[in-house]
Write a structure and sequence with these properties.
Strands 1-15-14-13-12 form a five-stranded mixed sheet, with no helix packed on it. It has a single domain, classed as TolB, C-terminal domain (Neuraminidase, 6 Propeller), CATH 2.120.10.30. The longest helix has 4 residues. By secondary structure, it is mostly beta strands.
Length: 340
């Protein structure tokens, strides 16, 4: 069972810690992710895809709030599908829907209203055949044991007796990632806490609550997270945070790259893709061009491409295709044309 103590996880995000701490605070070290930029990589648009109306079969406006690829499946939350799984295995440029939640509405949940903003706008991850997602009200747990028919099996907190969503701050996150081997989810709130969620009992239990700053002070802002080779990369808006995962599941040895203003991050088995949008901050701004920086696990810059500031994006596990929500109306698919 995980410890339920509160800890100060990364004290010093607002003010960089440059000397060893003696009061239990984590020491954050600064790193530069590359001294020499790699050649620019090109993207070739090959398709744009929209969900189809269940009654007419006509394409409809499609807004992916969250995108996440596992294996050959693209998981998304948004409208009109609520929660969707598109299969990429047969043709990465012509995904086939495995399910879309709005087309299974009568079976999808028996726990009350399920507005996507309330339960799936902030974060999504999976553990085995179960999806975990969070929004402005709380966390929803979806079983995918029946491949074509997902069902909500847990909700934190439960809705009111009238089926109306109730908000509980302990379950509202803007990034969620799963431990590579253990039944643990790392769930990041936007400004104040990291929650370590224990899944070992078949339910979601809060195992630890770690503050970003002193006494939970606001630290802006977690916007995405990803796992690569036992490291967790966190987009913290004005910087990129990198943690190692300890043998007990805790996050240790935090490092930060302040020369990249990270607004989103995704990972494949080989690389981390970090969306950089320069800020105007005189202390945290970066002169690097906006776009997607491709890093390896040592935070070495191995690629860069311009991507027109996607709202959300995902990358195929073989690093050949880039899926993005650019305008909030469709999913655009690009080939990645590597130059090295």
């Amino acid at each position: 069972m995980l410890s339920k103590k509160r800890h100060n996880l990364i004290w010093g995000l607002a003010v960089l810690v440059t000397v060893a701490c003696t009061d239990g605070r984590a020491r954050v070290t600064t790193t530069v992710f590359s001294s020499v930029d790699s050649p620019e990589t090109s993207l070739q648009l090959v398709a744009d895809v929209q969900s189809k109306d269940g009654a007419t079969g006509n394409a409809v406006s499609t807004n992916a709030l969250q995108m996440f690829i596992k294996g050959t499946s693209l998981f998304m939350t948004g409208t009109p599908f609520m929660f969707a799984r598109w299969e990429l295995g047969q043709d990465m440029e012509n995904p086939m829907p495995t399910f879309e939640g709005n087309k299974k509405l009568t079976n999808f949940t028996a726990m009350g209203a399920w507005p996507v903003d309330s339960y799936a706008s902030g974060a999504v991850t999976t553990y085995g055949n179960t999806a975990f997602m969070s929004g402005m009200s709380g966390t929803s747990v979806i079983s995918m044991a029946e491949t074509m028919n997902p069902k909500e099996i847990q909700r934190y907190p439960l809705a009111s007796p009238q089926g109306i969503p109730i908000t509980q701050e302990d379950y509202t996150y803007t990034a969620m990632v799963t431990h590579p081997t253990k039944p643990i989810i790392y769930a990041f709130k936007r400004q104040d806490y990291l929650y370590t969620l224990d899944l070992s009992s078949g339910t979601v239990k809060i195992g630890a609550k770690d503050a970003y700053g002193s006494s939970g002070q606001s630290v802006c802002c977690v916007m995405g997270a990803a796992v690569l080779q036992n490291k967790i990369f966190v987009a913290f808006r004005d910087r990129l945070l990198v943690f190692e995962i300890g043998s007990d599941g805790r996050l240790i040895n935090p490092k930060e790259a302040t020369d990249i203003n990270a607004v989103n991050v995704v990972a494949t088995p080989r690389y981390v893709y970090v969306q950089h949008e320069p800020t105007s901050s005189p202390t945290a701004g970066s002169a690097r061009p906006s776009g997607i920086y491709v890093l390896d696990s040592s935070i070495k810059n191995v690629g860069f491409f311009k991507a027109s500031s996607p709202r959300r994006f995902a990358v195929s596990q073989d690093d050949t295709h880039f899926y993005s929500n650019l305008e909030g109306t469709r999913v655009k698919i690009f080939r990645i044309l590597w130059t090295n």
